[in-house]
Amino acid sequence: MKNNSLNRRGFIKSSVCGAIGTVSVPAFITSCSPSKKDADTQFKDIELPELTGFAPDGKPLKAGLVGCGGRGTGAACDFVAAGNGLTITALGDVFDDKLTICRQELRSKGIEVPDENCFVGFDAYQKVIDSGVDVVLLCTPPVFRPMHFDYAIEKGKHCFIEKPCAVDPTGARRMLVSAKHADAKQLSVISGTIRRSQKDCLETYRRVAGGAIGEIVSAHVIHHGGTLWHVKRKPGWNDMEYMLHNWVNFCWISGDLLLEQFIHEIDLMTLFMGDRHPDKALATGGRLRRVTGDVYDFYSIEYIYDNGIRTHCTSRQISGCDNEHRVLVYGTKGYTNCFDKIFNLDGTVAWEYPYPKKDDADQSMAVPNPFVEEHVRLVTAIRNNQPVNDTEIHVQSVLMGIMGRMSAYTGKFVTWDEVMASNMKLGPETYAFGPVPGIQEIVPLPGIAVDE
Question: pLDDT tens digit string along 127-136?
Answer without folding.
Answer: 999 999 999 9
